[in-house]
Specification:
Length: 313
């Protein structure tokens, strides 16, 4: 299997609260509470580890509450290359209702100064050689601007790594300029960056062809329960997920990304890669937490995924 680096610049301690239904302005009683060391890159890392890959994790981590993250790294066998910064890693509250709707309340996190940013670049210069790919996922922390982020991605590419990118807003706009190997926006994120609708297959195809012409290697557009569309050179595929009972949508996109990176690095056929990745994402929404919890269940979900050539409608 591959050696993969994941970068989570703005990780979070996720507190997921299970409730029957959110009543605004009222006292709401929870059915369960779950606390996870998380962040998009770390969520991806857990799925990649379950798929058998050797994973190094890096980014910025608050030194005041690093213990839950360090426990996760030890449990999962991750190589820890995070830069510690003063303060606490942010806490995010996720209200997961029985109908599958999730309401997020995300904290601000610590400020990452120039010294910490330089330290991360130096560490990556040391550890990146020997990795097959890097997954850069999530938002930018306070103190990190899109221009520095673009320079980071360009440096990773110069180190010879395939760059898979999953972010939004100004960070996504800057990241697209670096021509990543793979980019995975959802329809809302891509609409915001391109300034035009990408709701229909025809609109998505036009947007993807624009990005591919600019040098992006793979454009994967996720649409939640409406499936996922994957565009590359001479490739346009659509995957429709099976119907499942939704516990939480948190981590579904991260699981999809991990599955696609796995398939591409394993040199599987595009159809096989997309089917497996879509099944992993479907499994993610049936559980609270991250990773592949049941291989037999995953196989059943995979058999229910429909993959077909994408035809514009």
């Amino acid at each position: 299997m591959a050696r993969i680096l994941t970068l989570t610049l703005n990780p979070a301690l996720d507190l997921t609260v299970e409730i029957d239904g959110l009543e605004l302005g009222e006292v709401n009683r929870s059915n369960a509470l779950h606390r996870h060391a998380a962040g998009k890159g770390l969520n991806v890392a857990q799925v990649l580890a379950d798929l058998g890959h050797q994973v190094t994790v890096s980014g910025f981590l608050g030194d005041a509450n690093a213990q839950p993250f360090e426990a996760l790294f030890a449990q999962r066998g991750f190589t820890d290359a995070f830069i510690r910064v003063p303060g606490e890693t942010r806490s995010n509250i996720k209200l997961a209702e029985r109908n599958g709707r999730v309401t997020d309340v995300n904290g601000p996190g610590p400020v990452v100064d120039d010294q910490a940013q330089a330290a991360l670049l130096a560490r990556l210069q040391d550890i990146a050689p020997g990795h097959d790919a890097v997954v850069v996922a999530g938002s930018l922390p306070r103190g990190v601007n899109p221009q520095w982020f673009q320079a980071l991605l360009e440096a990773l590419a110069r180190m010879g790594l395939k760059v898979a990118l999953d972010t939004s807003g100004a960070a996504l706009r800057a990241g697209l300029l670096t021509r990543p190997w793979l980019v995975k926006p959802n329809t809302h994120e891509l609409t915001e960056v391109l300034g035009s609708s990408v709701e229909t297959p025809a609109e998505q195809s036009a947007a993807a062809q624009r990005l591919l012409a600019d040098g992006v290697g793979n454009v994967v557009i996720s649409q939640g329960e409406r499936g996922v569309n994957w565009f590359a050179a001479d490739l346009a595929l659509q995957a429709l997920p099976p119907t499942v009972d939704v516990a939480s949508t948190v981590g579904a996109g991260d699981s999809l990304l991990a599955g696609l990176v796995h398939g591409l690095l394993s040199e599987r056929t595009p159809e096989h890669s997309l089917r497996t990745a879509t099944a992993i994402a479907a499994m993610a929404v049936t559980q609270i937490g991250f990773g592949i919890s049941d291989a037999a269940h995953l196989a059943r979900l995979e058999s229910g995924v429909s993959v077909r050539p994408l035809t514009e409608q």
